[in-house]
Design brief:
This protein is of the alpha/beta class. The chain folds into two domains: 12-113 and 152-259, Ribonuclease Z/Hydroxyacylglutathione hydrolase-like (Metallo-beta-lactamase, Chain A, 4-Layer Sandwich); 262-340, Arc Repressor Mutant, subunit A (Orthogonal Bundle), CATH 1.10.10.10. It has helices at residues 55-63, 82-85, 88-95, 105-113, 115-128, 133-139, 218-232, 248-269, 277-285, 291-310, 331-340; strands at 12-21, 24-34, 37-41, 72-76, 98-102, 157-159, 164-167, 170-176, 185-189, 194-198, 236-239, 245-246, 314-318, 324-328. The strands form three sheets. Strands 1-2-3-4-5-6 form a six-stranded mixed β-sheet. Strands 7-8-9-10-11-12 form a six-stranded mixed β-sheet, with no helix packed on it. Helix 7 runs antiparallel to helix 8 (248-269), helix 8 crosses helix 10 (291-310) and helix 9 crosses helix 10 (291-310). The longest helix has 22 residues, at 248-269. The chain is globular and about 65 Å long. The chain starts with 11 loop residues before the first strand and ends with a helix. The relative contact order is 0.11.
Length: 341
């Protein structure tokens, strides 16, 4: 891959790194450089099919900025998905740098280390929500991501949100933006209103919102994160995928409206009769998805259903064969819930 110098703001360099996935073949990292040295934000994926795991691509991208990996003093991970974190262990080895992540990233690293338990929990959840036994095996074949992670390197500095640091000639604030991932962070430079957004805000697509646990409300978290970004009114957004773009507040509003429309569509599906999450997924996303696409779509549908349940729009019931069904909550039931609060 040819690497050239991309500097969307003074002292901020965009590194475009390859990914081996159809439809998602690039990821951005960012090098923040000033006279004090360099700081790297995200690092790409360890690719077992590439020479040296793809590390040569990262080195070439950094070299293209006129700087060196060995000058990196800290690596900050926006979130510990493989395309942003997988190369982290190798970067830490090579640069001898610190590794900063949100404290909640420990859960993600534990899942990488125990894919068997993760797959078993996923199989149980899919069965509860109406996925047939023949399909479950195919949908849970993608839970072991260890080949794409160089090593499960833990953070040397655990972030909570609100921390500040200087890099690239400006001061940055860590903003916790859960939703796409519970441990997701963005970096905000208020003086020139630059936001390094990771996957929380993208220019041309909406990030996947997944559902994992019974009481989680990832879509609610995500909409709250979008509201944070809208209030900041970023002038320049540096995303985890795709080109930088302007007017982050408007993009946050557009993304929130997308989810509002999907919520409305799901309510319409369950308005007249109860449906399983699997059936709802087919209605919203279609029934011709490939296995991994369908796994993502079910997670997205469940995240929206969790939000609707939390907000009293739908309720979950159990069928005679012990499957979960969702139906629109009646106005009377909603009024009773309101009276009880």
């Amino acid at each position: 891959m040819r690497h050239r110098r991309r500097e969307p703001a003074p002292g901020v360099f965009r590194l475009v790194l390859p990914l081996p996935f159809p439809g998602l073949d690039r990821v951005n990292a960012y090098l923040l450089h000033d006279d004090e040295g360099s700081l790297l934000v995200d690092c790409g994926m360890w690719d077992p099919a590439a020479e040296d795991g793809g590390f040569a691509e990262l080195r070439a991208a950094v070299d293209g900025t006129g700087h060196s990996i060995e000058d990196i003093g800290a690596l900050i991970i926006t979130h510990a998905h493989i395309d942003h974190f997988g190369m982290a262990g190798r970067v830490v080895e090579e640069a001898g740098c610190e590794l900063w992540m949100h404290e909640a990233a420990r859960d993600q690293l534990e899942m990488y280390g125990d894919p068997g338990t993760l797959a078993e929990e996923m199989r149980a959840m899919l069965a509860d929500h109406g996925v047939g036994p023949d399909e479950i095996g195919e949908l849970t074949a993608f839970e072991d991501w260890r080949p794409f992670v160089h090593s499960l390197t833990g953070a040397t500095r655990r972030l909570e949100g609100g921390e500040t640091f200087d890099a690239g000639g400006r001061t940055w604030t860590v903003i916790h933006t859960p939703g796409h991932d519970l441990a997701h962070i963005c970096l905000w430079a208020s003086d020139d209103r630059i936001l390094i957004s990771g996957d929380t805000l993208l220019g041309s697509i909406t990030p996947h919102i997944d559902f994992r646990r019974g009481d989680d409300n990832p879509l609610g978290d995500y909409l709250a994160s979008l509201a944070k970004i809208e209030a900041l009114e970023p002038a320049l957004v540096l995303p985890g995928h795709g080109r930088p773009f302007e007017d982050g507040a408007e993009r946050a509003r557009v993304t929130a409206r997308h989810h509002d429309r999907r919520l409305g569509a799901i309510v319409q599906v369950v308005r007249r009769e109860p449906h399983t999450a699997s059936e709802i997924t087919n209605e919203i996303f279609g029934d011709t998805l490939l296995n991994f696409e369908r796994r993502l779509a079910i997670g997205e549908a469940l995240a929206h259903l969790a939000y609707l349940r939390r907000n009293g729009e739908v309720e979950r019931i159990e069928s005679e064969d012990k499957k979960f069904l969702y139906k629109k909550k009646s106005r009377r039931a909603r009024d009773i819930d309101d009276d009880d609060q």
